[in-house]
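#dry-run=false #mode=assembly
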Amino acid sequence: MSKGMIELLKNGVDETLYMTLISTIIAYAIGIPLGVLVYVTDRKGICNNRIINFITGVIINVVRSVPFLILLVAILPFTRLVVGTTIGSDATIVPLVVAAAPFVARLVESSLKEVDSGVIEAAKAMGSSKLQIITKVLLPEAKPSLLVGGTIAISTILGYSAMAGFVGGGGLGAIAINYGYYRYQNNVMLITVAFLVLIVQLFQEVGIRVVNKIDKRLR
Amino acid sequence: MIRFENVSKKFVSKDNETIAVNNVNLTIHKGEVFGIIGFSGAGKSTLVRHINLLEHPTSGKIYFDDVNLTQASERELRKYRQRIGMIFQQFNLLSQRTVIDNIMYPLEIAKADKKERGKRADELLALVGLEDKRKAYPSQLSGGQKQRVAIARALATNPDVLLCDEATSALDPITTRSILALLKEINEKLGVTIVVITHEMKVVEQICDRVAVMNAGVIEEIGTVKDVFLNPKSETTKKLILPEDNGLKTDDSRRILRIAFDGQSAFLPVISSLTIECNAMINILGANTENIGGKAYGQMLIELPKDADKERQIKKYLDSQGIYYEEGGKSHEQGYDRTA
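#status=ok
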């Protein structure tokens, strides 16, 4: 393999990691509050509010229903507005966040649903405010489950980032499509796929180890 | 201290309406241990959740120290809740926090001084006897230890009242006894008013001063434990006292006597003495007795001999020993007065 190709792959890995990590962080910054909002405004939640619950639910479901490749193209004007371009890694982060945030919100919601309702009741009985219940009980108690969700989210976002290669996104996905698919370089295709698999495995392994370490229920 | 005025609670679902609490009037005095007993679904948990307004009544008023809590704002209510501790059947500890951090939680939300928190938590840990489990996580503790942590946590803010919702129902009999002893100690030493919900008569017998019997959302009977225990009026109470069968029915051929042990010495061989003294054969049909601190508590059903003379002798003997008995559901006031 030529020196240029190795350089290319190295850049690809860097770009993929960059897109995936930044998108995951921003998606969580939006997804956690959104997930908490959906959870607490539920009929059985601590801030039961049908209207807010319905609206957030609809937004999440609509965005989640659009296939990622379509969403990617559909929001190109918005992407240009935010980062000033529609190609490259930075431009991929925008649709990645838009697609991942609602997904993360659902993951967060399902993690929160696992928190024992008795513990929430006990917190209420001790005179906790709603904000205290969220920050001191719900999120800390759901932490292990949230981290499991995190490893799922990061793998999904990585997969999405590879798809963005079709429309000018960067990273390993772009290399696989431009060299492996359009130029029939099967060896490049195989190597990029191997890298993608490795990265997913790495994230998952690290995630599970961290969860096992911090979850105090398992001992 | 706590007063319920015509409190009712309805749960309305799509196609039916359940009245969980039906027009309850109740006063719980300062410093007493008050029991609420009833079978599952009687509404006792719902009732007790009204004391700290975890449930809002559909109608009626709830007073805490003469303040109507149903009118209190959310902020005021949180302040009152810090004065009303609560423990649960499933303990409800924060699984991701250590024992000491669990106990400090109520102090954290009450915004107590940081140094104070640690000091207070250590005191409580000593009170419940778990100093060595300071840094343990709930999953590393036994049921009884978890409940001790829950008790310490409930007491952190120096509450006036401690609500116990089936606090011993998930524990084995020996652990139950030690938890109840701890609750009694807290009541006596710290003067905390305790409200206990249970479906077990022995819990009430061991620690309560007064008891309310609840069925289908209604308080059927209320009084001192001794009164209710020795002289049950409602069907529910009778079933709670003798769960297997209500036993007090007397058919034509068999005469059955219920004997109640109410703190007589557990070391006296009452039944043996009875057979010897009266020279009568006695058939024990059922018994549900316990030895609590060397005293006998519980019930025994015996079949009387057909001979009317022997029967009189037996009753006379029981009277002389100050043991309460009743026959066919009717109480014998004479025997009752002696023990009262």
